[in-house]
Amino acid sequence: MHKIKYIRNINKLPQLSQQERDQLAEVTARYAFRANEYYLSLIDWDNPADPIRRIIIPSIDELDAWGDLDISNEKQNYKAPGLQHKYNDTVLLILNKACGSYCRFCFRKRIFMEGNIEVVNDVQPGIEYIKEHVEISDVILTGGEPLLLSTHKLEAIISTLRNIPHIQIIRIGTKIPVFNPYRILDDWKLLSLMRRFSTAEKKIYIMMHINHPQELSEPAIRALEGLLDAGTILCNQTAMLRGINDNPDTLHELITKLSFTGVTPYYFFINRPTEGNKTFAIPITEAYTIFNEASKGSSGLARRARLVMSHKSGKIEVVGLTDEHIFLKYNRARNPEDEFRMMVFERDDEAYWFDDLKNQVEGS
Questions:
Q1: In the chain, N or C terminus with fewer CB closer than 10 Å?
Q2: Does the residue 363 lie in any domain?
Q3: What is the rounded average pLDDT of the residues 231-258?
Q4: Which domain CATH number covers 116?
Q5: pTM higher than 0.90, yes or no?
Q6: What b/e readout covers 162-193, taking b as 16+ CB neighbours within 10 angstroms?
């Protein structure tokens, strides 16, 4: 049994100089800091540009004015306490306002701030909403980090959902397999729970957030194997992040390693212009170029990911780029009439987000 210590105070990191800790105090006063011993052990502290360090250690650049705390306007999606319903067949249950560690580029960092009321301890109102809406077939358990909940509490939630006839898919959004794989490796009851409720006809999908191949340590790969052996389906989604995975070779290594271990590369996200995230931002056209270059030389199994923006109006895929134009498509849409709608804009290499694209080609 591994007891992993969590660290919430930047002053407890001896790897940082006192000058760095003093400088970052203003950042952590605004955006919460949390890490754990396991994940910190993946950092090469002699490398200031280490990608894991960049994922988890605050930077003074986070104070640059940019973006919005709720850029995708999630507040309009709440239909019950702790429950978001944006697309007809899918809902989100936000179960937890803590994570194994806090990624500095998190688009939902607002829920870790004092006074946020989006996360509730009682999921019953959300469950009742799901029962009443038979069009819902897919429930995403998210947060925060669902796998920080006790296995007993997870079992209560998952078993309740499994007893609702119209719920076919349960998804768990998690970074725990790489943040702290021992949460999985040391808890046979958790794997037993997955095995029991990920059935032949109704699967549990584990939607992971693995951003860099350095996260795929030996314990992490064993945790993935345990989840696969328990009958769950593993998918990965990562944001495109400056200084972390904005190199085609890095992304190529990530998607191929994931495919080798039985994990489906699912989504690559254009990093949302969330407050504090400017330092991680990559323009849309550059992200598309990196995304395509990364796919070269990989099998079709590694190429299944799509490059998308999770916009307030829907999930918008970047499907093409020429010297003059950028081509987009709604994969999911808040307005059903927009579903699969193609859009063509004049190419703008300075655009970071859908709202930055101003010149739409007439008729698209």
A1: N
A2: no
A3: 97
A4: 3.20.20.70
A5: yes
A6: beeeebebbbbbbbbbbbbbbbbbebeebbeb
